[in-house]
Every structure is written in structure tokens, then in C-alpha cells.
Amino acid sequence: MQENDKNKAHDFSEERDELADAIEKIFHRVRESFIAYENGFMSTRPLGVDKHVMGKAALYGLNLYDGLPGIALFIAAYSFASKNAEGRDLAFRLAARLRLEVRHLGANSNCADGLSGMGALPYVFVQLATWLKMPELMDAAREVTASITPRQILTEDRLDVMQGCAGTLLSLLSFIEEVAAMGLDSGPALELALLCGRHLLDKRVSYKSGPRAWPAINSPPLSGFAYGAAGISYALVRLFRFTGLEEFREAAIEGFAFERTLYIPQLQTWFDPRCNLPLAKASWCEGAPGVALGILGSRSAIDSHALRHDLEQALNITRNLLERPVDNLCCGNFGRIEIMNVAGSVLGRLQLTEHARQLAAEILDRAESSGFRFPMPHHPADSPENSGDNLSLFLGLAGVGYTLLRLNYPDLFPSVLLLETLS
């Protein structure tokens, strides 16, 4: 028995060393690619340029999803874990660049537009302040928060996590939770978060006379995390947990009930009202992994038999998915790895964590010979045109690196897919 324990400890130590090696390689690839990018473009172009212009050069704008903030997040987390001087130096430069750009945009910015806009910047600055031990970055988070106006929130028709009000709400709550843990005043952030929450309540509609949920642009309500009810319901649960206001919890329960009405048991997927067909995707953004994540993030406030059933159903589908042709956090294999890792941690099930680690090891083995597979911007996720040097968090290398950091240092970093903090 003692010998078996020793073997397990040895295997785990070897696995950690392999993950650490993979993380270090990814860091150096990101660093070298970013420095080349910086030398070629950053001195002549503002970060806020439209990403549809100039292809690869325009990837790194001021958003967490596929921009500079996500790259900064990975570099700062890596330097915090490894104490690597090169990493810390680059993270400082990135943080300074971000703060400069935010100040430069000032009143011209819209900071209420979710993960794919500037709405997630308060979350980013909170994490950078912690990992880099730079309390002045909390001031940057405060500045961004103060630039969000009630009008921006109330006129925002996009309600989801990716592009709209729910993503901004999650970012505001991360800032509020961190500031509250420090015993400081969050200024207007709580009022803005409440405004986001009530805007989400007001915008609900009933789909086919069923439970209410949140319409998308030119579409009925959808399922899933990035664009649908799972992500928005989770954001409202976070708001309930901080405020204790039952109306937000009740709306989340109804949102999950709506999602349940779209499920097609025979096909093990959800109905997609946009095209009147079963949903083909299965990832963080749409499908079973994201549905599971939304429920996992909400379990502390909602623990019904129906939701437990939904969770087991979504986790079972996620576990049995085939390897995707894409490796990124948003639509690919590393999003699934992260969600299984979250499930293992939240539910206390070691086998789910081991499943995540095993899948990561398999993809790292494959990437050694053929590289990581990331879709080119504006191409379908299964497109043969792949960009192995995409550096971003949700679409590229930074997301792979951050997911591996979470696997190697289980208690050190929060899940970025949930926009959570450790406070």
C-alpha cells in the first residue's frame, strides 16, 4: 500500500514537471511573438483599432477575449507562479500599456460591452493588481468602472456575457468583491451592478409561453454560456450572492428552467431558435460544457433536484465529447479541459480533475509534433486555416497557458471562464 502511494506521488510529481515545462514553453512563445508584434505594430498603431482591419496585426485590442488584456493576464499569472524575471518585466510593461491606453481613450470609451469589448477591464486590472503587487492598478480598475454610465447600461441591447450587460456585470462584481475584501469603498460600482441586474430583469421575454429568458439581437432567447441563459443566469446568481436580493436568484432559476425547455434528450443537445435546428456546437460558448459551467458557478445559491440533474446531464455529454479540431478556450479543447477542472474542484470529484489533466496531456503530446490548432479570425472553428501563433486568451496561446497554470497550481488562480476572483 505504501509503495502504491509512493508511485502515485512520483507520477503526480512527473506530471507537474511536464505541465511546468509546457507552461514555460508557451510563455517563451508568447513573449517572443509579442515582442515581434510590439516592434512591428505597437509603436505606430493605437490598441483601440478596429479588429477587422489589417488582419493579425489588429488582433490585440483592449478586450479580454482576443486582445491585449488577456495576454497580460496570462503573463502576469505566469510570473506570479514562476517568479520569472522576464515574465514580470513583460507583465509590468503590458499593465502600463493598458493603463495608458485606457486613460487615452477616456470618455470616448464604452466600458459596458462585455468580454469582447472593454467591459471586462475592471476584472483584468483587479487580477493584475493582485499578481503584480501593484495596488495602483486598482485605481485603474476604479477609473474604468467610473467611466461606465447608467445610460450605457440602459441602452445596451446586447444582454449576454460575451458582448453585453451580463459580461459587464460579472466584471463589476469581481471589482466589488475584491474591494470589499480589502475593506474599501467600491464607489459607484455597486449601483452600476444593480442597474445591470435590473436591466437584465426588465429585458426578459417568454419563449413559446414558457419560462422567461433574454432575447439575443434579432433572435429569441438562446441556451449556453457566452450568448445565452446559462451565462446570464450565473451573472445574476453572483449579484444575488453579493446583495442578497432574491429577485436576482429567482430570475436565474427561471433562466435555467428556460434552458431546460430547449434540451433534446434523443440528440443530447439543445434546440437553436436562430435556425430552428439542434445546436451543433459543444464548447464554452455554446453547448454542454458552457451549460455545465453556468450551473457549477450557481450551485452555492441554487441547489434543486432539477438543476442537479441538468448538471449531471451536461457533464456526461462533456466527458464523452470527441477531441475538437480546435484547441482554444472559447470553442475548443482547452475550454472543455478548464470546465472539467472546475467541475472536479466544485464537486470534489477527483476523477473529473484527472479527466481534465489526461485530456490536456494528450493534446500537449499532439502539439509537440503538429502544434496547437487555433482558428484564424473570421473563419469557422473547424476551418483548415489555423493560426498557431494567435497569442490571445480565448482564441490562442495565452488561454492554453492559463489553463495549464490552473491545472498545475489548483489553488492559486481563479477560473477566467467564470470571471471569478479568489476573494
Labels describing this entry:
423 residues; mainly alpha; three-stranded antiparallel sheet; two-stranded antiparallel ribbon; 15 helices
In short:
The protein is mostly helical and 423 residues long. It has helices at 2-42, 68-82, 85-105, 121-131, 136-147, 150-154, 165-181, 189-202, 229-243, 246-261, 288-298, 305-319, 333-347, 350-370, 397-408; strands at residues 205-206, 212-213, 215-216, 219-221, 263-264, 269-272, 277-278. It has 15 helices and seven strands.
Descriptive overview:
The chain has 423 residues and is mainly alpha-helical. 57% of the residues lie in helices and 4% in strands. The protein is built from 15 helices and seven strands. The chain has helices at residues 2-42, 68-82, 85-105, 121-131, 136-147, 150-154, 165-181, 189-202, 229-243, 246-261, 288-298, 305-319, 333-347, 350-370, 397-408; strands at 205-206, 212-213, 215-216, 219-221, 263-264, 269-272, 277-278. The strands form three sheets. It has a three-stranded antiparallel β-sheet. Strands 1-2 form a two-stranded antiparallel ribbon. It has a two-stranded antiparallel ribbon with strand order 3-4. A hairpin with a 5-residue loop joins β1 (205-206) and β2. The longest helix has 41 residues, at 2-42. It is globular. The two termini are 39 Å apart. 50% of the residues are buried. The model is unreliable at 41-58 and 381-385 (pLDDT under 50).
